[in-house]
Specification:
Number of strands: 10
Strand order of the largest sheet: 1-2-3-5-4
Distance between the termini: 42 Å
Largest sheet: 5 strands, antiparallel
Structural class: alpha+beta
Helix content: 25-40%
Length: 309
């Protein structure tokens, strides 16, 4: 279910007023240009001399107060649930699922993310909406083109994530929940793992701060699975978005811990499943899905050939 994108100026006036009260200062809002999230996504620029904006009564994180910006994303209240995943078929996306579940997941997993990830500041529920605010961090979308200076910081961001376990106290979808539909039942064990995954390392989900570092943002698809999955998906994006050859993408993937030791059969299985998913999205006429699907096929074919070597 998708609510579609909503502009900030379309939110209820009472909700916008409540946000101002929560911030404790005047602000101006800019709709986030490249956010893929449905619902609302906006950058709030705080007035000069704004007070601390950290969670509760705690001081704001340094990067939030330094930037003077808060990122807010939100969803409409869900319709009354008719069941839950556990009550139905055990699938993560059962009949009771709504986009608010992704918001809940992103809030729950936030304390366990890499140190570079933006932190949740506060949550505001009311007036038919649920909003989640994050510290503002500097940066622009990553450039995946061959020769880009962003590639090394992105590889470093994936390396920062690689050792982190899936938090035991947070119910995450598994890699099988995400891709099992596109796999044979016998492949289930190939996608088993207990590492924390981002699973959508698109260029728009990686903010690069010039000369400093790259940060993974938008954790609404956080997942538990084997360590190499994010690297495999990044390789696909290097081909589709960056224009790399599969051989070039492989060399960048090899810089991320866990990639070289991955089971080639498991990697090929995952990437073929991801290619099938993009072909389904292309059939639904999702913008850019067709070109991504073709690149996913190219990446999958390359990996399958390596598997056979």
């Amino acid at each position: 279910m998708s609510t579609g994108r909503i502009r900030w100026d379309q939110l209820p006036e009472a909700l916008v007023k409540a946000v101002g009260e929560r911030l404790g200062t005047a602000f101006t809002a800019r709709d986030a240009e490249h956010s893929a999230a449905a619902g609302v996504a906006a950058l709030l620029d705080l007035a000069a001399g704004a007070p601390d904006i950290g969670p509760g009564s705690s001081p704001s994180p340094a990067s939030a107060s330094a930037s003077g910006t808060v990122f807010v994303k939100g969803q409409r209240d869900p319709a009354p649930a008719v069941g839950t995943a556990s009550e139905e078929d055990g699938s993560w996306w059962g009949p009771g699922w709504s986009p608010v579940d992704e918001l809940d997941l992103e809030e729950a997993v936030n304390p366990y993310l890499p140190k570079s990830a933006p932190r949740v500041l506060w949550r505001l529920d009311g007036y038919g909406w649920q909003l989640l605010a994050f510290e503002g961090v500097p940066g622009r979308g990553a450039d995946f083109a061959p020769g880009s200076p962003d590639l090394a910081p992105v590889a470093a961001a994936l390396a920062e994530l690689a050792p982190l376990p899936a938090p035991p106290g947070v119910r995450l979808p598994t890699a099988w929940d995400r891709w099992g539909y596109y796999c044979a039942a016998a492949d289930r064990g190939l996608l088993a793992g207990s590492r924390l995954l981002h699973t959508d390392p698109a260029s728009t989900n990686i903010l690069v701060e010039e000369g400093v570092r790259a940060r993974l943002v938008d954790w609404s698809w956080a997942t538990a699975g084997p360590v190499w999955i994010d690297t495999a998906l990044w390789g696909m994006r290097l081909v589709s978005t960056g224009g790399h050859s599969p051989e070039q993408a492989w060399r960048w993937a090899a810089r991320v811990p866990g990639w070289s030791a991955a089971d080639p059969k498991a990697v090929a299985t995952l990437v073929r499943a991801e290619a099938r998913r993009w072909h389904d999205l292309a059939a639904e006429r999702v913008p850019t899905a067709d070109s991504i699907a073709r690149s996913a096929d190219e990446w999958a074919g390359f990996l399958a050939a390596r598997e056979g070597d």
